[in-house]
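Sequence in, structure out. Go.
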Amino acid sequence: MAACSSALELVRSGFADDVVIAVEVDASTTVPVLTDGAFSAGTRAYGSLLDGAAHTGPVHLMPPG
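Output:
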């Protein structure tokens, strides 16, 4: 991921630290969920890519609350 064109563009633009954070695996138990134009913290759903399960369909995230 860090070698993809978008990551390289960010690095050239001075955002190398952001790329390092963005490509970390299992660094957080929350994910950003966009709802009605605003981001909130979602949590892992059982069977999602985020819990390391085998993945065959869309990732289902659980909204906060």
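Check: The radius of gyration is 14 Å. Strands lie at 30-35, 38-43.
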